[in-house]
Amino acid sequence: MDPVDTVRAQLSHHPPPTHTRRPRGPTLPAHRLPELPGRVAVPGQSRGTPGAPGTLGHFNTAPDADAEATLLTCLHSLRWAVRVARHRPYPDLPSLLAACDEAAYDLTPAELSAALAAETLPPLPADAYSAAHTALDAAHAAYEAKFGHAFVICLDGVPPAEGLDRVLEGIRSRLANDPEEERVVAAEELRRLAGERLTKALTGPADPADLAIGHHTAGNGW
């Protein structure tokens, strides 16, 4: 059986997400996200009123495979993508994001590890001074050596000029965590990134100034 069909069959025995957000614990300050390539418009199907490409209406009416492909650019978990896609249509974006959160909370440890493994640290801008490259490379190498995956942080709403300082501060702060503590923090940041990425995908092109540290391997750099 195809892996996607296997996941769909498994999920047929699970109730749909409640579409309500769970309370979030404390996380690091958010920044903005990078544009993620591969957010192709998903063609319509007969699930409801089609919308323009890159909108919630279009996402709701897309074939399952195309909706799942869009979701996988936001968080690399096939079961998560299949679960969210199969409960379409969603009445509004908050309902979709709540379902994404609910499904992400149910990732198994192995699925979370795979999703984190798909994240990479984007490079600094070409005009960044060399000391910045050295500092970021050293801090991130220490993080990966301790935790075994890329540093993941959602950076939403902070000016690009402040991004590097926030990232370095975050890495150094989180290096003090033990592996289980950091896994909880990284999972929350990954959920936040997924929500921000999907919002960008369904509401229009991302601003070139938008940033994320810890982005999907399909994504661009800084």
TrEMBL record:
Keywords assigned by UniProt, alphabetized: Purine metabolism
Keyword GTP-binding attached: no
A Gene Ontology biological process term: purine nucleobase metabolic process
InterPro entries: OHCU_decarboxylase, OHCU_decarboxylase_sf
Origin: domain of life: Bacteria
Tagged with keyword Transmembrane helix: no
Record SUPFAM superfamilies: UraD-Like
One Pfam entry name: OHCU_decarbox
Protein's name in the database: 2-oxo-4-hydroxy-4-carboxy-5-ureidoimidazoline decarboxylase
Species whose genome carries this gene: Streptomyces sp. SID14436
